[in-house]
User: Fold this.
Amino acid sequence: MDTVEVKLQTLPKQVAGVLARRIASGGVAGGQGPSEQQILQEFGVSRAVAREALKILASLDMIEIAQGRRVVLRPAEEWDYLSPLLIDWLPPEQMREILAEAHATRIIIEPAIAAIAAKHMTKEKLERLGTLLAAMSASEDNPDAYLKLDLDFHMEICRAAQNRILDRFMYSSRWWQMASRRISNQMPHALPSATEMHRAIYEALVARDEKRAEEAMRRHLKKTTAVGLPR
Amino acid sequence: MDTVEVKLQTLPKQVAGVLARRIASGGVAGGQGPSEQQILQEFGVSRAVAREALKILASLDMIEIAQGRRVVLRPAEEWDYLSPLLIDWLPPEQMREILAEAHATRIIIEPAIAAIAAKHMTKEKLERLGTLLAAMSASEDNPDAYLKLDLDFHMEICRAAQNRILDRFMYSSRWWQMASRRISNQMPHALPSATEMHRAIYEALVARDEKRAEEAMRRHLKKTTAVGLPR
DNA sequence: AACATCCACTTGTCTGATAAGCTTATAGGC
DNA sequence: GCCTATAAGCTTATCAGACAAGTGGATGTT
Assistant:
């Protein structure tokens, strides 16, 4: 143990991170993935750690593991871009692309969610949304708190749609937005405008007006363009 | 080793499957998850296997593992329902619900994909789609082959949208449809009708008509209702 | 050239330790 | 009695070395 011992994460996760970044950057030659032996030598960790690191990459569909065969790389089109791990490990350019694609996906999905939610909306949920809205209005000078409330607001609406697949999507959406926040210290003045748009969504839901909820959500997302994405 | 040695899957996966089914069925009392010790005793496996089984459950967001603390169960709303593993391990009723929700999600997403694809469609992609369509037409007496072509057809369209998040969604969709095929030996007569609808989508794409592609896809999915889902 | 056998390499599993982090209870001081 | 600090005992994390099992290629034979 001659190295500095920082323990921000578990050891296998750190190793997996290094490997993932290397693969994502195209720094791996053939279709051959990293073998246990290579990891042992390069990182000086035990086999258990090396194996767990590989399992992590496999769970992201970045590699394929099978007994007897060497680890092979899998096509990047099938990686699990919904995972917070992979988001962290992508090189900046790819990360920006993915965040833009994620936002485009939100524009497809969330208006539809809002429409369904308008149908299923209950008094209790509306109350909770109202509370969130008030809190947002009061947190416009605190971007971190505002983001959390924002995420909760959208998630609460999604829950009303009673669709676990959509729930999962919104759950992943949390990581993208936190990542996008991380790379670009965001629009400080846009928050009041955001609250207005959220209120418009809320009022459409109160009225149980599917079309209006859908349209309000679409307008909100189109305005809240993915931050810090040049080109 | 006094038990029969069947090796359909790796050992940790089998253990994880038993645990996951137990958790999903509500057969676990408090918020306490299974500990390594409990697994050792119950299944008679090594610690390495027990640990990997837990890691699998953690990768599905079913449990939370942290050093020193006991394993705790996570809320079912946040499980990774897009994973083929979890789909297999859900009890039948939940599985049916999820499949219905997955289909509802397809109806939201895929028409939008078709519209975007119509914009970006290239000659090469159209050719490949045409080939797939011909193959489908010729495989209407072979449901298994037909399903594979069907999946490829939808995936090919999705690829044209150039959105990795949507790609990932379609990739997961594969597992749902294979699962839904598994639980209900499906409509043998519906295949010719399906080919017609696929052709309608194809022709809209050829014409690069966004609205028509969107509508054709929607009609297709609304007709191809999730199979074997009563009520 | 075709086929069977064997061998080297890879991942899968087992055993038994030690390290590190958390919870709880216990003992001490005030 | 109450609060604090220490220690004990639980949990997961990591290490080490071994053997089992599966794959693919080399080898050798026919």
Q: What stands out?
A: Residues 10-12, 45-49, 66-70 of chain B lie near DNA strand C (CB under 10 Å from a C1').
